[in-house]
Amino acid sequence: MNVPIIDPLQGDFPEVIEEYLQHGNMKCIAFNRRGTLLAAGCADGSCVIWDFETRGVAKELRDKDCIAPITSVCWSKFGRHLLASATDKSLTLWNVISGEKVTRITLQQTTLHASLHPGSCTPSVCLACPLSSAPILVDLNTGSSTVLPVSVTIPGNGPPLHPRNKFSDGSPPFTPTAATFNKFGDLIYVGNSKGEILITDSKNIQVHAIIPISGGAVVKDIVFSRNGQFLLTNSNDRVIRVYENLLSQKGATNELEKLSSKNDAYEGIERLKVNGSQCLILFREFQDAVTKIQWKAPCFSGDGEWIVGASASKGEHKLYIWDRAGYLVKILEGPKEALIDLAWHPVRPLVVSVSVAGLIYIWAKDYTENWSAFAPDFKELEENEEYVEREDEFDLMPEAEKVKELDVNQDEEIDIVTVEKDSGFSDSDTSQEELFFLPAIPSPDVLEQQDKCLGSSSKLEDSNHSGSPFSMEAVQNGQAIPAASSPLEVIGTSPAEEAAEATNSKRKRKPSAKGLELQAEKGKKPSAKNKSSSKSSKSKNKHGDTNGFALDDDLSDEYL
After folding, report:
1. Tally of domains in the chain
2. Which terminal residue of the chain has fewer beta carbons within 10 Å of its beta carbon, N or C?
3. Of the candidates 250, 214, 254, which has an alpha carbon nearest to the alpha carbon of residue 233?
4. Which of 120, 140, 160 is the last residue of a domain?
């Protein structure tokens, strides 16, 4: 077995900021199922899709009807569609490949968080959590919506109790709620303002179980781990709670119906609570016992082994990472910018956070390489040691003993087409329609003015390295050569300089063979005519011809 290159004792959690992404004012983020694409919603109503491998913008989705800030983004199961909610009460479904808008629905309230049904290949149903009302199921094809129950009342027990946050003017009470699908979307877990988790069937909208939360605090966030084994809640009492899911992943609805029939001895809410005790069990609680800070955007790692939460204090960009056993293993401090959203990479130890300034920060692990893993016989030393050679180290060995026959079947066919299944996604079905990458949009690096500067500077370099005999002669005689103009000066050349440049281009024609012979003969004995012509050329250069050189009268016909 090969020795691992990375030390296995190092935790698989990020430690430092590796890079940051900038494109407009980004507000929310979401990875696709494989972690190859990162979607970000911006304050101007557009959605940017980053290629996470190259860190380049692969596509920008922009709707002329939506200029309001995006509140949440969500990928479809196979990554071909993207759902975005905005502060103008709209839900927009995008086709990622074509960049076209599939549908747009306007609700009665602003949606803070929206998620597509995880079990359907073609997105048709989404779960929306409005600002101050119960979660709703929205049919994206017809635009119809169904309100989910957030509390259970028993008939005959009097009128239901009003929530504690009722307004005095008779307007609807502010009841913040959070909701999420389970892994396959057959159940919906709703956290209400009374400190309860309701398990509801997504088809017939019937509450099957209730799990009360200690303290009765408002549930602000509710998130499932990727494998569906654990459920995380963030309450208003500044405690993050992790529950273990006791239901099976597939057929959870049938299992709930069996529990209800089994607990017929109980009635009403009591039976629902008994069902809830057999569906979820409290696993761990996470909090800062000293500062009692509020948490923002908590989530699981890709494998569910780590829990991360961000500080919701103003001006702080801190990440707290716990292991599932409940120990705080790392506190990461970022820039002095408040954090507004957070996401853990599905398969890698990477965390991506969004600051209030609209930047995306990528937190990665600071690896320590184990160089002895590259050679099994390599041994790392703390300090230099004197090497002592073995007695038989340089003995000659027969070739027959050196070369060992390899037991390899040469006729065996090697399969290079079949892709091995990723262990991280062994519990989910794969499809040929799944979208992994998008071609990145090339961005122009050089402006038009820079192109002109580069072109003119290349001309200057060519002229300076042309090796004209009189420039070499001036250098040998210690005479000063006029300095080459800067690229910006060349852009604004005068008509006289352009005419001189045109004459220079004519003079750079290739001489004939006879002209070269005459030049070689006269080069041995420079005549007075050459000197006079060189002086005339120098005087001419003073008038703006920086790249020109004088010619002999006898060779003028050959050159021109």
Report:
1. 2
2. N
3. 214
4. 140
Q: What is the pTM of this model?
A: 0.70
Q: What digits encode the pLDDT tens for the residues 7-31?
A: 444 568 899 999 999 999 999 999 9
Find out whether 319 and 15 touch, Cβ atoms under 8 Å.
no
**CATH number for the domain that contains residue 79:** 2.130.10.10
Q: How high is the pLDDT of residue 184?
A: 92
> Each residue of 406-421: pLDDT tens digit?
566 677 888 877 766 6
**501: in domain:** yes
Residue count (the chain): 560
Q: Is residue 69 part of a domain?
A: yes
pLDDT digits (tens, 9 = 90+) for 243-254: 999 999 888 999
Q: In angstroms, rounded to a whole number, what is the distance separating the alpha carbons of residues 329 and 495? A: 71
Note whether 52 and 37 are within 8 A (CB). Answer: yes
Decide: helix, strand or coil at residue 67: coil
Least Cα distance to 97 among 78, 117, 110, 116 occurs for: 78
Please determine, for residue 437, whether its predicted confidence score (pLDDT) is greater than 80.
yes
> Tokens 């596509």 label which residue?
59
Specify if 3 maps to a domain.
Answer: no
CA-to-CA distance for 125 and 525, rounded, in angstroms? Answer: 94
Domain boundary residue among 106, 140, 174?
140
CA gap 132, 129 in Å, rounded:
9
| CA 232 centroid distance within chain | 24
Q: Within 10 A of 415 (CB to CB), how many other CB atoms are there?
A: 6
65: number of Cβ within 10 Å: 12
Range of the domain at 545: 450-559
Transcribe 280-345 into DSSP letters.
Answer: EEEEEEE--TTT---EEEEEE-TTSSEEEEEE-STT--EEEEEETTS-EEEEEE--SS-EEEEEE-
Q: Does residue 425 fall inside a structural domain?
A: no
Phi first, then psi: give them for residue 423, nearest 5 degrees. -65, -30
DSSP label at 369? B
**Each residue of 363-381: b (16+ CB within 10 Å) or e?**
bbbeeeeeeeeeeeeeeee
